[in-house]
Give the backbone structure.
Amino acid sequence: MIYLLLSIFASTSIYLAFKLADRFQVNTKVVISINYLVAVLAGVLQEGKVISLNAVLHSSWLLMAIIIGTLFVVMFFLIGYATRQVGISITSIATRLSMIIPILTSAIFFDASNPLFKIIILCVTVIAALLAIYKKPQKQFQFKLFFLPIILFFGSGFVDSLVKVAQHLYIPPNEVNIFSSSLFFISLVTSLFFLITEPKSKLKLNAPTIYLGVFLGAANFGSLYFLINALNANFIDSALIFGINNVGIVILSLILGVVFFNEKITKLNKAGIILASICIIIFAKFNGSF
């Protein structure tokens, strides 16, 4: 259970880092590159020894690390682009709604018992999460940009599903650190290609940029490391882990927004939080986990 809670805190910290990056008006491309460098170092430190290149090249999960690591960066930048084009509300809804894809993947392919019941409860949980985060769009939605939320929905869901597949089929429990470090190294290399496109005048290294990059890197590594360990623990079904993880991120993000950024939550948001909490309790009781 502790790994799941830590995954929620770490994942929520990622959104907090981007919120602070916007407030301090730093170059997010530089922050993202620093973040992946820190994530790689965190994995090496967690492993406690130099990671063998030969072990990585001959691992069963190398191809999965390359695919997921590349998609991590693409989704990071796509979320930033979508936020500017269609607004944070629609972007948030698309990325949070995508949780249904790994949830259904887990419920159908990896969690054999009572999949229909799980799917029904988790669909209600998704609706509750949407109610919890819904806000009126900050800018008028342009129909020509309708493809952005669709790409975010399938892209985010596909990446999360790949993490589950990699954890279940390819990553031994004793190689979580090596896998995470290798994945983030691939993300670092990919992010540098995006950084090359930036004008040199915008590539400034100041204190806020470095601090936010380090903070984001620690949170990013933690979110993947703790999620994989939570899935490895097998204390509850993986479908429930994805559901609790995503809804927990939504609820904690709302709380942080209210406490630290004076954001307002509506009655609809409150109703969504209550409904999501009830769904999690029902699912947990059904699984006999709490």
Observations:
- The first helix runs from residue 2 to 24.
- The chain has a mean pLDDT of 79.
- The chain is about 80% helix and 0% strand.
